[in-house]
From TrEMBL:
One of its GO terms (biological process) is methylation. Gene3D superfamilies: Vaccinia Virus protein VP39. This is Class I SAM-dependent methyltransferase. PANTHER family: METHYLTRANSFERASE (PTHR43591). One of its GO terms (molecular function) is methyltransferase activity.
């Protein structure tokens, strides 16, 4: 088994354990980016939409009422089953659930009007292959929305922050691969004829303890993640909006980038 296969197996194990938690997670289910997705895309009734790495199925649930069909994919079968159960409870019957690798999509070229991927791409071992597949399955003039955690483009005082954030995320969640910067994503997108139309960068604020408990496997792991923040340099803690009370981390922030692209 090569390194990429090992990572994907780890992703399946990690998300299989917590599938139902991602369906009900307020952070994932109630994000302000979901209504913004509809506002940016202006979905049409005849569209076929692909939701890559659907997770708890929140993007599919948001777009299904506006489109002919949504195909929701995920690498993890248990996650797909949890999403399907939630969609059936909502009586959303135009969502098809398909197990699929985001880097090897099992669809013909130029099949979809829209492709979305939300808060998942930092788990993909080969982002270039992922973007190449997105462009392939999109129809000409089709739209792609990526929403994901990012690190700052490295320059000046930000040079060390990206490495810290990725090490910090990997310590909490072994299935984490790497958050890219917006600049790195744009290079990959331009290479595959995906032109940026609109973008937004925002800070997401989390209560630290529920956030770390969602993926940590032990009390020791939780403490190690917290200590990493407590011992970080001042400029890193400032950038991440870390708040501390009585020697314990209370809250912190993560950068989230949302971008709308159009296929040339």
């Amino acid at each position: 088994m090569n390194r990429e296969e090992e990572i994907k197996k780890q992703v399946q194990e990690q998300f299989g354990k917590h599938a139902k938690a991602y369906v009900t997670s307020v952070t994932h289910a109630k994000g302000e980016d979901l209504p913004l997705l509809v506002e940016w895309l202006k979905p049409q009734a005849d569209w076929r939409v692909l939701d890559v790495a659907t997770g708890g199925g929140h993007v599919a649930k948001t777009l299904a009422p506006h489109c002919r069909q949504v195909v929701a994919t995920d690498l993890t079968v248990l996650m797909l089953e949890a999403a399907r159960e939630a969609h059936l409870e909502e009586k959303l019957e135009n969502i098809l659930h398909v197990q699929a690798d985001a880097e090897k999509l099992p669809f013909l070229s130029e099949t979809f009007d829209v492709v979305c991927c939300r808060i998942a791409a930092h788990h993909f071992p080969n982002p270039a292959a992922f973007i190449r597949e997105i462009s392939r399955v999109l129809r000409p003039n089709g739209q792609f929305v990526l929403i994901d955690n990012v690190v700052p483009d490295e320059s000046g005082e930000f040079a060390s922050i990206g490495d810290f954030i990725n090490q910090f995320e990997a310590l909490r969640d072994p299935s984490h691969v790497r958050c890219l910067s917006p600049g790195e994503w744009k290079v990959l997108m331009e290479r595959e004829a995906l032109e940026v139309q609109q973008e937004r960068l925002r800070k997401k604020r989390f209560q630290f303890l529920p956030w770390v408990k969602r993926t940590a496997q032990s009390q020791e792991q939780q403490e190690a993640v917290e200590q990493m923040l407590l011992q970080a340099d001042d400029h890193i803690r400032s950038y991440m909006g870390v708040s501390i009370a009585d020697g314990r981390v209370q809250e912190h922030e993560i950068d989230e980038w949302m971008v709308l692209c159009k296929k040339r």
